[in-house]
Amino acid sequence: MVEKQEEMKDILLRMKEEILAGINKAMKSGSESTAGEPTGDIYDQASSERDRELGLLLNDRERGKLRQIDEALTRLEDNEYGVCEECEEDIPLGRLKAMPFARFCVKCQSDMEKLQAQTRRFEEDRAYREISFNEEEEG
Questions:
Q1: Are the C-beta atoms of 62 and 23 separated by less than 8 Å?
Q2: DnaK suppressor protein DksA N-terminal domain spans which residues (predicted)?
Q3: How far apart are CA 100 and CA 83, in angstroms?
Q4: Distance CA 125, CA 113 (A)
Q5: Which of 6, 15, 35, 71 is deepest in the core (most CB within 10 A)?
Q6: How many Cβ atoms sit within 10 Å of the Cβ of residue 126?
Q7: What share of the chain is helix, strand, coil (3-state, %, to 5)?
Q8: Which residues contact 5 (CB under 8 A, 6 or more apart)?
């Protein structure tokens, strides 16, 4: 058990280093590409803006992954790592190796994703009905 935890801790720390290095590289290349750059035409400006927004989005995703890794490292320290937060069963080692910051077993994760999809569809249907109702009142 201790060997598994040490192996997973090493994997998590390696992932964290890689993400931080990627974020630093992206930030450096982003600041270098905009520093001293001529204004260019509107298409160049739009392209640069799109690239910058994409970089920010990726950084947000990477920051989220860092948060998940830090939470997994905390669970390791608290001896709660590798236990599903929903059913409290052990998460299989294969899943942990594939997704070291997993908080749920495959079944519970799948159940939660199905519930989220149903909730999202319900919210979208409700919003559509509200739009349709408002258009009928105006018309």
A1: yes
A2: 6-76
A3: 12
A4: 18
A5: 15
A6: 10
A7: 80, 0, 20
A8: 76, 81, 82
Amino acid at the residue 98: A
What is the tens place of the pLDDT at every residue in 23-41?
777 777 766 555 545 556 8
List C-alpha distances in Å: 64 to 70, 94, 133. 10, 22, 38
Cβ neighbors of 17 (< 8 A, separation 6 or more) are none
Burial of 66 (0-12, 13-18, 19+ CB in 10 A): middle
> Which residue ranges make up each domain of the chain?
2-82
- CATH code for 2-82? 1.20.120.910
